[in-house]
Predict the structure.
Amino acid sequence: MKFLLTFVGVVHLLSLNSGKTIYKNDISQRTFQEIKEEIASYGDVAKTIINLAVYGKAQNRSYERLALLVDTVGPRPSGSKSLEKAIQIMYQNLQEDGLENVHLEPVKIPHWERGEESAMMLVPRIHKMAILGLGSSIGTPPEGITAEVLVVTSFEELQRRAPEARGKIVVYNQPYVNYSTTVQYRVQGAVEAAKVGALASLIRSVASFSIY
Ligand SMILES: *[C@@H]1O[C@H](CO)[C@@H](O)[C@H](O)[C@H]1NC(C)=O
Ligand SMILES: *[C@@H]1O[C@H](CO)[C@@H](O)[C@H](O)[C@H]1NC(C)=O
């Protein structure tokens, strides 16, 4: 018995070291080996799901559903009518697939409503630009904001040129690396621009190419 307890203690430490909490009340007596075996026993189920999605009846289904969402519903900000429509489509899809316990639950969420947005380059020539306000953007005053721009390609460049940014519109012309890296300009761009005293910020689309 003493041996068993010591053994469990060692295994527990290992699980902590690997950064995962595997042990929980009822399974606290199980060894890694047993857990590994249990996970391995689902191999066939996992293979069935993968085969269904990659080669079988569900081939291309995720892609087609995503295409349907982006083509027919479009942007789906929290709390919007279009998100509601997207949820209804997914709800119906999951029911059609015969999944268990498919149900909706009411939630409360703050929401942001799009107003009107426009941007015009005034110098060196007048040019109307196609822009889209990012969800949760703070509106400009009714007369808008007119200012010189400071174009930067990175947050590092913005830091380096911080004294030039005060009172300007910061334009991020960041190269596209990958989504997780480049989306930081969408997430943090306005905040970083505000920190150096800019009046507003614009970013390029977070995409590998633009159809505009
Ligand atoms: C999935 O897409 C590929 C590539 O477009 C196509 O060859 C294949 O027939 C599609 N499969 C199904 C089940 O529609
Ligand atoms: C994205 O690019 C960064 C920087 O090159 C890299 O560290 C990261 O692993 C990449 N992420 C993915 C998901 O490829």
Summary: The chain has nine helices and five strands. Residues 53 and 59 are 5 Å apart (CA to CA).
